[in-house]
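Most newcomers find our protein records easier to grasp once they have seen one. A record pairs a protein's sequence with a compact description of its fold. An example says more than a description, so a record of this kind follows:
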Amino acid sequence: MRFIRFLVTATVVGGLAAACKDLVSVDNVNNPDRARVLKKPADVEALGGSQFQQIMLGTLGDIARPNTGMLTSAFENASALANDGLGPRSAIPRGSIGNSRGNAYATDNFQTFNILSVAARNVSDVLNRAKAPGFALSSAADGQRLKAFAHFVHGVALGYIAATYDSAGIPRPSDGALETPPLESYMAVNTYALGELDSALVYARMAGTSTLPVNWLTGPTGATVTAATFVRVIRSYKAKFRAQVARTPTDRAAVNWAEVIADATNGLTADLVAGMNPSQGWDYNWLSANLHFRDANWHQMPYQIFGMADVSGAYDSWLATARDSRTPFLIQTPDLRFPQGATRTAQQSNCPDPVNKPDCVLPRAGQYIRNRPPGEDQAATGWRASYYDHYRWRAFADAGRVGNFPFFTVAEVDMLAAEGYIRTGNIAAAATLIDKTRTVAGLPALSGVITTITDPVPGGASCVPRVPVGPNYTSTACGDIFEAMKWEKRMETAYTTYGAWYLDARGWGDLPVGTPLSWPVPFQELDARQIPIYDLGGNGGQAAAGPSTYGFGTGQQ
């Protein structure tokens, strides 16, 4: 990462300066001096309080991030554009994540690694200073708050790195100023991250710990986060990272689901909302009128997953058609998050003001998806093309991405608990959580109907979701409670958070064969460490997805 490389360079420069001291003798102000930079407790607090903003920047704050490729890898988005890996990451058969020097997506691959690593290093320095003898803020409560928040940011930064890359260095508070932490496996990084979140809990639970300043966690205009609410935020991230670090179905099954349940059921009770404002450094750049909502070249909803809502038989016919010969079809579904009607015209009229806003810029309440006007369709390879766009966040984009945005939803936390309940045999508890969003969307309740993990979801021929069935995956059948859980999680988290579908899909085994399961350590970091460059993913490659739950990536799928 650039920060570590800068430190190494400073060491070399310092050595050269010593050799030439007879010619000139000056202080090297570029040499890291933590004691000087973090001398005042107020400066330490200011640095620590600014670092979650850096996590937002490193994950969602720009299109040049792995998140863009994750969108198309997991069929959350479809685009054939080369921009930021949109088309290449979705190509079938799947290719590797190229990591050669100066590759086309060098910035995308590097930025999340770099920004989050620097944030982790910064809060390590904050913890080193905040725990030093004699350090004091204006009150003990504020000191506890700073330590809680620094441990939290350290855990979240490393948690996202572990979820994304196959290895990374772990900056520790005890590291020397010029020390470069060795690369450790993603599981080791995840374990350390969870330990940091545990430490954050200890301080957040201390009597009298202060409420967080607004700008620390929820942006310039976000809601106040009390110490009690902060505990729930920390536990939600623990549940998230414990589950999402898994790369394969075997890994996901081996997760400590009792711990996930314990944290998730004591996690968020309301969406964690940030008051976004790009001019103040809080942004979700993809949700822009120039990107997500620009045109169907950049975004449309592919049928591989979204087609599971269809109850007309059109999805089955689409699956039975040769992959590159497929054409868009009308999704007819009882799921109210989709436009209703038996024709495109009828579905396009699902707007509050269909006369004055015929393009359905703002769909009705509870509708997340629009059937776009035919004049806005774009030609695309058959399996990428559809009639549908995800429009849930259009008003946010139209406001210049200024306003409240839920970047960690209760639904995500509920579905983590539901998955744990399913895996541990508590079907009734899982059904209750799944029904929280399922029934609001017009789908029949699972509670009292589903009693075993193999029972099909209710609805008969009109059940949702309908999932492809093997061995040919050219027809569908009603999904079980596990598929119902996955459906709700996908529908409710789409475009809300980093790697929303991808990080779960790899652990569920849903990605197409050959999809990379991790990003490699970027070549910039490998070069700085003098380690050989490597790629990951692609058919037959390292860290590549195996057979897909739905047959994706094999045969005509």
Residues 68 and 337 are 23 Å apart (CA to CA). The longest strand covers residues 403-408.
